[in-house]
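#structure-requests
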Amino acid sequence: MSEANDQVSGTSKKVSRRKFILGVIAGGAVVSAASYRFLSPGSHHRLSSMDAGERLITLNVNGKPRRVDVMKQETLAFTLRYKLGLTATKIGCDRAECGACTVLLDDIPHYSCSVLTHTVRGRAVTTVEGLAAADGKLHPVQQAVIDKQGFQCAFCMSGFLMAAVGFLKQNPNPTRAELAHGVSGNLCRCQDYNKILDSMMHASELMKSDSTRRS
């Protein structure tokens, strides 16, 4: 029995939390896809009248086309996390209040929990996973968080990053007060706003440095 327990324990240690979550997501995507195709024995006539193209759509996510089945009432946050496996997009309040689910749509920050997935066809969706360069170099906003250790629990971090990226694209030289206003749609449970603003102000400096080097 002891040997069997050791083998089970050793196996569990090899399974990371992230791999477990992604496995659950993969299983959930299959169940979700099946659940709205086969609702009940009497639903076949109703479903057959629906155009399959309305469910299977192509999204431009982080610069790549992604084919995914979606329901008409499905939110972008749900699609990103549970069907495309982009778990950096967090679902906090799920009612457009906390900002944890913020993503960029055509470089403009939006609460993805309040955007229906089928409405973003033809638009560029960017999540935290799409910020780093192809060679792995972090985006200045990501690097700034590392440099300044701007978050505690970091549940809200991805939303703040996306809000800051969107704001700094439009306002590359903000004052601290302007930046605070620019990301004010995001809430931090740890209330570590000073460190967050320190990081985001540092990010604006890194972005200007990158721009100067390129020019």
